[in-house]
Amino acid sequence: QVQLVGSGGGLVQAGGSLRLSCAASGGTFATYTMAWFRQAPGKEREFVAMSSSGGRTTSYADSVKGRFTISRDNAENTVYLQLNSVKPEDTAKYYCAADRFGGWSRAPTFYLYWGQGTQVTVSS
N or C, where is the chain less crowded by C-beta within 10 Å? Predict the structure, then answer.
């Protein structure tokens, strides 16, 4: 059973930075595709970024490209999301997700394993 625990959220001013972490346990993390999604109140969960199992291939939503960076440390079973130049519209609950079989999809329904979410609030 794969368990994911997200952390690192908080309140940040517009233009600031924040780093989210997601620690995984169970299974073989180095084989997982890892992704970040976010969900604002009243909105659907949306794709933010994802990383291949080895970390060499990444993909980003257009809205965060150039500002956010996904990375992973397979030795520590952890994936990160660095948020730079944040905007008020980045305010949401951020979720990490895992696919054990190295699949590649931006659809939230593709992912079976989810963290509990960590709140990011950007003040203007």
Answer: N
Q: Which residues contact 62 (CB under 8 A, 6 or more apart)?
A: none
Strands, DSSP E only, in 10-91? 10-13, 18-25, 33-39, 46-51, 58-60, 68-73, 78-83
Q: Read off the pLDDT of residues 60-105 as tens digits, 9 standing for 90 and up.
A: 999 999 999 999 999 999 999 999 999 999 999 999 999 999 899 9
Q: Which residue has the tokens 């992704």?
A: 35
Other Cβ atoms less than 10 A from the Cβ of 81: the count is 27
Please give the helix or strand (H or E) that residue 43 lies within, else none. Answer: none
- Separation between Cα atoms, residue 123 and residue 34, nearest integer Å: 28
Yes or no: say if 86 and 15 are a contact pair by the CB < 8 Å rule: yes
Taking the CA of residue 111 as centre, how many other CA atoms within 13 Å lie in the half-sphere pointing to its CB?
A: 26
Whether residue 49 contacts residue 65, with contact meaning beta carbons closer than 8 Å, is answered with no
